[in-house]
Amino acid sequence: MREIDTHFPAEACPFCGIAAAYPHPSSPPPSLWKKQDEKEMSLEDIVPDGDVQPERTQPGSFVVLAGRGVVAFLDILPMVGGHLLVATRNHRVKVSDMTSDEAQEMGFYLPLLSRVVSKVTNVSDWNIVQNNGARAAQVVPHVHFHIIPRPATKPEIKSRSWTMFGRGQRDELDEEEGARVAGEMRRCLREEIKRAKGVSKL
Question: Which Gene3D superfamilies match (predicted)?
Fold first, then answer.
């Protein structure tokens, strides 16, 4: 067992808790991309607004996406507003532990979610950061990518580390703002999926 697993077992993983609180409406097919139409799969991955309840998890979570192999939610200790985490649904510690189907779904969603973050925050530049292992500053040992907007003008972050490693200097996410931003991201993601897949309506 890896050192990082021993001090943070899967059953205590907060990201697994979020994934369990927001199950995908369909059971995963044997081959993610070959057994079901991509359009149907993608559109049902977005959590309906009425089903989003931050109190389902502890701490509360603001979920944007609940796909078969990938979930996305706001970071509760964001570097800046709109800081989004994109994680595997199943407990994988490092990128090297991901399955090919998980990697394919992650690859499908990272560009879409990047556009969503950019549009919702009105910030044209962003970082995508992913850490593997404690020495690489992985705080939660569950595969996740950070999508972090880089505002052009925000003086208070000039003294902060933009290496994005570890917890750094972060502020707690305001619940009201979290609900608003996550809702706007879900709306924007629906539009992105419809555009990407050529779907005229939900």
Answer: HIT-like
- pTM comes to 0.83
Is 144 an annotated catalytic residue? yes
Active-site option among 24, 83, 91, 144: 144
Sign of torsion over alpha carbons 17, 89, 79, 169: positive
Helices and strands (H, E) in the chain, number of each type: 5, 5
Q: Where are the alpha helices (DSSP H) in 31-174?
A: 38-43, 100-121
Cβ contact 185:116 at 8 Å: yes
Residue with tokens 């800081």: 83
Instruction: Give CATH for domain 3-197.
Output: 3.30.428.10
The per-residue pLDDT for range 89-134, each reduced to its tens digit, is: 999 999 999 999 999 999 999 999 999 999 999 999 999 999 999 9
Q: Token digits for 3? A: 């050192």
